[in-house]
């Protein structure tokens, strides 16, 4: 597995081809995270583009010492999506949100069938225990802190960390 | 440190989730540089999460669809170049204005200096005019004195070896004053002074009317001298400084006899 350090350097230099590569690597993930929060395809499309354009303009503020590039843009995406959900216009539009977790979306995602890792993902999702579903949902999709997740799940804070580790391990076993 | 225990703690999963403190992030970053095993672990966690989150996306979005937006933003970046001309023009105008102000200031200073010079010249001219007026007034007085009908004019001719010398006495008997016009006399040499004498002829008796101490410095060489004598002639001799009791006849430059009144 090759690190993306060279891409990041070019990205910070406003190299559009590097940005396109980063988009190819992470665009869909960001779209997925945003969609999971806003639950609306058109809004998700719009938000995801906003997120990447924002990242492009703020590229100078990113430093790999502060965290992974994926983590950085994931954070921008979650904040943008949460802001959107809290906005007045969004609340008026979306009265009855379905409470689907990412697992439910993945299960019903027909688009996924065209992907090479679709089988692994679907297998993972179908076998995933409830506790894993919840901890991944909260930590990666919703951006909860360890403490917030422990309160929501009524689980000791130390358990969150190890449980999450085990859940991600299962994921790695099936998709990598 | 126990790298395996560190990995197993689950901290790296939180690192990828972005749920560590700034200090912890820094720590993980440094450990990744030192231990390839930790870096590898982070890369795998990230790859797995990327795949999982991507599978939630209902459809792919082509980069091309928003490449335009980045290009747009580039165009937007370029557009301010138009207003830039305004700002360039603004700057140019400012610089010109500043230059103009400096030039005007320089000009003003030069003009002030010139004005100062003119002012000084004016004052100098005023003094000259004042002097000229005074001179004119003096000259008028002199002329009036000389033209007075009571004036007796006595030309004094050059004597002996001083034949080229001459002088004139205008005698106003009414106010007992003579005006000696001594322009025809040379400057008195160092240590010498001109002395004016009133003479009666039979017998020849000289009476000193005094020395002309300011002769060399006087401009018009006309000297008013008091004379209450019944003079019959006037003479001028060159005498040692301080004057003499009686005239030195060898130094008699000019002499003239008062014409007898008709």
Automatic annotation (TrEMBL), chain A:
<dbReference type="InterPro" id="IPR036388">
    <property type="entry name" value="WH-like_DNA-bd_sf"/>
</dbReference>
<keyword id="KW-0805">Transcription regulation</keyword>
<feature type="domain" description="RNA polymerase sigma-70 region 2">
    <location>
        <begin position="22"/>
        <end position="89"/>
    </location>
</feature>
<protein>
    <submittedName>
        <fullName>Sigma-70 family RNA polymerase sigma factor</fullName>
    </submittedName>
</protein>
<keyword id="KW-0731">Sigma factor</keyword>
<comment type="similarity">
    <text>Belongs to the sigma-70 factor family. ECF subfamily.</text>
</comment>
<dbReference type="InterPro" id="IPR039425">
    <property type="entry name" value="RNA_pol_sigma-70-like"/>
</dbReference>
<dbReference type="Pfam" id="PF04542">
    <property type="entry name" value="Sigma70_r2"/>
</dbReference>
<dbReference type="InterPro" id="IPR007630">
    <property type="entry name" value="RNA_pol_sigma70_r4"/>
</dbReference>
<dbReference type="InterPro" id="IPR014284">
    <property type="entry name" value="RNA_pol_sigma-70_dom"/>
</dbReference>
<dbReference type="InterPro" id="IPR013325">
    <property type="entry name" value="RNA_pol_sigma_r2"/>
</dbReference>
<dbReference type="Pfam" id="PF04545">
    <property type="entry name" value="Sigma70_r4"/>
</dbReference>
<keyword id="KW-0804">Transcription</keyword>
<dbReference type="InterPro" id="IPR007627">
    <property type="entry name" value="RNA_pol_sigma70_r2"/>
</dbReference>
<dbReference type="InterPro" id="IPR013324">
    <property type="entry name" value="RNA_pol_sigma_r3/r4-like"/>
</dbReference>
<feature type="domain" description="RNA polymerase sigma-70 region 4">
    <location>
        <begin position="127"/>
        <end position="172"/>
    </location>
</feature>
<keyword id="KW-0238">DNA-binding</keyword>
UniProtKB/TrEMBL annotation, chain B:
<feature type="coiled-coil region">
    <location>
        <begin position="108"/>
        <end position="149"/>
    </location>
</feature>
<keyword id="KW-0175">Coiled coil</keyword>
<protein>
    <submittedName>
        <fullName>Anti-sigma factor</fullName>
    </submittedName>
</protein>
<feature type="domain" description="Anti-sigma K factor RskA C-terminal">
    <location>
        <begin position="92"/>
        <end position="248"/>
    </location>
</feature>
<dbReference type="Pfam" id="PF10099">
    <property type="entry name" value="RskA_C"/>
</dbReference>
<dbReference type="InterPro" id="IPR051474">
    <property type="entry name" value="Anti-sigma-K/W_factor"/>
</dbReference>
<dbReference type="InterPro" id="IPR018764">
    <property type="entry name" value="RskA_C"/>
</dbReference>
């Amino acid at each position: 597995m090759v690190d993306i350090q060279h891409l990041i350097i070019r990205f910070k230099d406003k190299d559009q081809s590097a940005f396109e590569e980063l988009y190819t690597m992470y665009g869909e993930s960001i779209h997925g995270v945003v969609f999971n929060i806003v639950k609306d395809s058109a809004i998700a499309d719009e938000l995801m583009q906003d997120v990447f354009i924002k990242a492009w303009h703020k590229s100078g503020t990113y430093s790999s010492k502060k965290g992974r590039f994926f983590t950085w843009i994931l954070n921008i995406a979650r904040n943008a999506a949460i802001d959107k959900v809290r906005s007045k216009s969004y609340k008026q539009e979306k009265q009855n949100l379905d409470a689907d977790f990412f697992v439910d979306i993945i299960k019903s995602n027909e688009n996924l069938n065209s992907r090479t890792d679709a089988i692994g993902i679907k297998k993972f999702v179908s076998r995933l225990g409830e506790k894993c579903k919840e901890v991944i949902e909260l930590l990666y999709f919703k951006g909860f802190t360890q403490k917030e997740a422990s309160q929501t799940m009524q689980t000791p804070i130390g358990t969150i960390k190890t449980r999450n580790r085990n859940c991600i391990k299962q994921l790695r076993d099936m998709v990598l | 440190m126990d790298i395996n225990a560190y990995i197993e703690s689950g901290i790296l999963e939180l690192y990828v989730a972005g749920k560590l403190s700034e200090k912890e992030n820094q720590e993980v970053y440094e450990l990744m540089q030192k231990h390839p095993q930790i870096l590898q672990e982070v890369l795998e966690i990230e790859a797995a999460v990327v795949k999982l989150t991507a599978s939630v996306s209902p459809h792919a979005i082509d980069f091309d669809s928003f490449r335009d937006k980045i290009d747009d933003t580039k165009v937007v970046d370029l557009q301010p170049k138009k207003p830039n001309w305004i700002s360039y023009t603004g700057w140019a105008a400012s610089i010109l204005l500043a230059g103009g102000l400096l030039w005007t200031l320089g000009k003003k200073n030069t003009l002030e200096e010139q004005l100062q010079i003119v002012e000084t010249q004016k004052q100098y001219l005023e003094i000259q005019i004042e002097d000229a007026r005074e001179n004119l007034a003096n000259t008028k007085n002199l002329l009036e004195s000389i033209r007075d009908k009571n004036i007796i004019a006595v030309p004094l001719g050059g004597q002996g070896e001083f034949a080229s010398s001459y002088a004139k006495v205008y005698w106003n008997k009414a106010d007992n004053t003579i005006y000696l016009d001594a322009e025809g006399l040379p400057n008195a040499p160092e240590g010498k002074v001109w002395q004016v004498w009133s003479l009666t002829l039979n017998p020849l008796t000289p009476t000193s009317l005094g020395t002309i101490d300011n002769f060399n410095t006087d401009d018009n060489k006309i000297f008013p001298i008091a004379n209450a004598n019944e003079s019959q002639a006037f003479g001028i001799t060159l005498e040692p400084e301080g004057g003499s009791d009686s005239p030195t006849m060898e130094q008699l430059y000019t002499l003239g006899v008062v014409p007898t009144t008709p």
